[in-house]
Amino acid sequence: MRFARTAALLTAALLPLSAGAQKRTPDADLDAYIAKGMQDWKIPGLSIAVVKNDSVVYAKGFGARRLGAPDRVDARTLFGMMSTTKAMTALAVAMLVDSGKVAWDDPVTKHLPWFQLSDPYVTRELTVRDLLRHNSGLGNADLLWVRGDLGTRTILERVRGLKLAYSMRSGFVYQNVMYQVAGEVIAAASGMPWEQFVKSRIMDPVGMTRSQPTLSAMRAMRDSNVSTAHFEIDGVVRAIEESPVDPVPAAGAAWSSAEDAGKWVRFLLDSGRVNGKRLVSEASFRELLKPQAILPPGEFYPTVELTRPHWITYGLGWFQQDYRGKFVSMHTGSIDGRTAIVGLIPDERIGVYIFGNVDHAEFRHALMWRVLDAYTGAPPRDWSAEFLKLYGDRKAKAAKATADREAKRVTGTHPSLALDKYAGSYDHPVYGDMTFALTDGALVTRFGPLPENRGRLEHWHHDTFRARLGDGRGGWTYLTFRLAGDGSVAAVRFMDSGELEFARRP
Fold first, then answer.
1. Cα–Cα distance between 250 and 17 in angstroms, integer?
2. How far is residue 137 CA from its own chain's centroid?
3. Measured between alpha carbons, how far is 198 from 84 in angstroms, rounded to an integer?
4. Which of 125, 161, 222, 413 could disulfide-link 430, Cβ–Cβ 3.0 to 4.6 Å?
5. Which backbone phi and psi does 479 adopt, to 5 degrees?
6. Angle (CA) 372 375 343, round 5°
7. Confidence of residue 24 (pLDDT cuts 50, 70, 90)
8. Considering only CA atoms, which of 84, 83, 110 is closest in space to residue 96?
């Protein structure tokens, strides 16, 4: 599809609104704003729900479910919620706190005696609250689940082999695996899997009839009104396969629609009530949005350069900041080919949820702030244009970093050994095996069963090679082989990280 024609091709399905919606409202020009934003950011499809007070005042879908296909996005089209799922995981814990089955500051091992981290003290002292506010001390461990062939229990057991990146509660590192540990706490305390709890205790009572807690559950619906993931590869937006998140569902596996997301936002703005009936106590709900950890700017969204908050914090499943004297809770969701964002100003009873079917299209931030401004009476501001420049500058810096690396390449070098000497299996005590095979005169690597973790290597310099894994969406991945004293290959280092050195299997 030519994106220059996108605005003309956009169609939308509007949910029935009240008669008052016929009057000019803060969202009166939102259709046009979204159409232009989708064109500028190369977004195939988008859906949005806006809630003011106790009403869904705007719920629409725009664009294509899949590029090149005729089906259009509407308010019922399913999208991945991704990390915005974390708010549901935290809510599930809050519900169990209400029932006395969990306490916020319970040691994790009270519920999961088998769980361990590398430090015995941290293992003993780590609490349920710590899991939800990203301050366990564990660094990023996503490589465990993105390889695609490890079960949930295996993933959580292997984290004991990882060194802690910082002292517990002294910092903040966003942590998907720890949210899955929280999911296992929910299962142990409730007697039902996380997926069942979220579906039966949250989604169904809230009225999210089309929503599902996992990708596999969504596919089991056999519903055709589902968006397709897209990624811009070599300057062209194209459809891609779904990235599996089901091994860590509590971190970000849920699916929903604008229609259902509007119901979820209504529930949140009503402090945990549906039609006046509480699903969670007021005290436990307040705990979710109470600041729990102070964040440095580097651990927050780049948007702070434009929103200029005085403080940024994390609650339980929520990022937070001040904006124009108001308390904003928000969270994004991202996985290859998909984006989501939810933003709330509880004191103003305004909330917005946005889904997109292309990777990291940061128009989501612009649209969220545009809606929040409109409904709180802030002066109009073209957030999309400002964010285009902000993220364009960041993209340019990334391109320069790539160019700088290219300039450091030592030309005219050759591998120390014949290519077949590098072939074989390599193991990491936590992340498992990585294999290299000589195929048609080149080394081919495989890290797990998924196509996106396979690639053909080309020589870079000395004993360093590079590959574009899968369809190339992740750019270049660098692998450096380390030789032993006898000249044989001892190990391979993945992505320039000493923590990711895989030892050659004898």
1. 33
2. 20
3. 13
4. 161
5. -130, 125
6. 30
7. low
8. 110
φ and ψ at residue 455, rounded to 5 degrees: -170, 160
Q: Which domains does the chain have, with CATH numbers?
A: 3-80+208-398 (3.40.710.10), 419-504 (2.40.128.600)
pLDDT of 23: 56
- CA 1 to chain CA centroid, Å, is 27
The burial of 81, by beta-carbon neighbours within 10 Å (0-12 exposed, 13-18 middle, 19 or more buried), is given as buried
Of 487, 489, 462, which is closest to residue 478 (Cα–Cα)?
462
- Mean pLDDT of the region 349-354: 98
Assess contact for 48 and 58: CB atoms under 8 A: yes
* HSE of 488, CA atoms in CB hemisphere, 13 A: 8
Name the DSSP letter for residue 198: I
CA-closest candidate to residue 14, choices 22, 26, 6: 22
What is the distance between the alpha carbons of residues 171 and 174, in angstroms, rounded to a whole number?
10
SS3 386: helix
Say what angle helices 363-376 and 30-41 make with each other, to 10 degrees: 160
Average pLDDT of span 228-257 = 96
Which burial class, exposed, middle or buried, applies to 170 when counting CB atoms under 10 A from its CB (0-12, 13-18, 19+)?
A: exposed
Please, are residues 237 and 231 in contact by the beta-carbon 8 Å criterion? yes
Between CA 26 and CA 352 the distance in angstroms is 13
d(CA 320, CA 327) in angstroms, rounded, equals 7
Q: Is 148 left (phi over 0), alpha (psi -120 to 50) or beta?
A: left
Whether the per-residue pLDDT at 21 is higher than 80: the answer is: no
pLDDT value at position 499? 77
Which of 357, 355, 301, 296 minimizes the C-alpha distance to 328? 301
- Tokens found for residue 296: 């440095």
- Cα–Cα distance measured from residue 43 to residue 237, given in angstroms and rounded to the nearest whole number: 9
Model pLDDT, residue 8 = 33
Distances (CA, A) of 246 to 129, 144, 351: 23, 13, 28
Q: Taking Cα atoms as reference points, which of 212, 194, 201, 195 lies closest to residue 99? A: 201
Measured in residues, the chain has a length of 506
Residue type for position 470: G
DSSP class per residue in 142-182: THHHHTS---HHHHHHHGGGSPBSS-TTSS----HHHHHHH
Residue 430 pLDDT > 50: yes
Q: Which two tokens stand for residue 202?
A: 């949250």
Quickly state the pLDDT bin for 7 (edges 50, 70, 90): very low
H, E, C per residue of 101-115: CCCCCCEHHHHCCCC
Q: Is residue 291 classed as helix, strand or coil in its secondary structure?
A: coil
Q: How far apart are CA 37 and CA 16, in angstroms?
A: 24
